[in-house]
Request: fold
Amino acid sequence: MPEPRTIRIASRGSALALAQTNLIKARCEAAFPRLRFEVQIIKTTGDRMQTMALNNPVQESTKGLFTKELEVALLDRSCDFAVHSLKDLPTELPSGLKLGAVPEREDVRDILIYRHAGAGTQSKARGQDAPLPFGAPSGAVVKDFPSGATIATSSTRRQAQLLAIRSDLKLVPIRGNVGTRLQKLADQKELDGIILAAAGVRRLGFSINEAGELSGQHVPAGLQAVFLGTVEMIPCVGQAALGIEIRENDPELESICAGLNHPSTHACVLAERAFLRHMGGGCLSPVAAYAQISREQLAIRGISFRNEMVRKGEVAGPVADAENLGVKLADQLGAGIT
Reply:
């Protein structure tokens, strides 16, 4: 009997990327016990350019920044499939590759993290008895922050939606992994809050209890978190979803993907990605869209902040028409206007 095929899974090496890839690997091993699965870590251009200003609109090289090298590994057959954060995967894939599966989505919401009013002191880095520069009670929302408060986020989508809620806010970029960003919030008095994706926080093992307290390994003391609803903060296209990218015309990989795919999530992200593709922008564009399914109907809401104009829209229709619904929403919001 021939040896079972070893399926090589391409992944970035960040803590979040590996957490996501190992989740998929475990599902594969449970569903296909006769196959062998191994993770192959690949460093991407984005990983090498951590100091690059990703939100700089003149940076054309940002397309595929965190995916290109993984796709090269698929095309040269050194790997068999790649696990991506779907929000990072360009809407147009290289010839010979396709989106094979989209597992069930995590929580799509963003979370606002800030120092709790009762925390008492900052970390030792700022002095044992130094008072907090700003603190808020449990359940604080954006409107509760003081005038001119500073919130850190590098996402143009989040920045635009935050300013639509509170035009007085000062928004600054922030870099680093989740742990680094949390420590910056705890240590830097000029930061009043940060915005993170709930899915990434949860996949890394952090949790938020009923009192809003953020906990987990190496979480600085005194941090509070509140979920932002998808009405006030529409997620980015593909947020909280993982994408399994494979080569075309590989029946074995397609069979594996069939076992990983969540049809409803797949339909929703197809609509969202069609919207983004038709809008003519990538993951750094100040646009957002979120699709949901109810009673065999797919509804997709979107917002665009391009050209200093705010456009909102929503369309709905049969799930089978997902991509056309995304295109229709893009047309409604002024596709092609930059």
Remarks:
- Residues 4 and 35 are 6 Å apart (CA to CA).
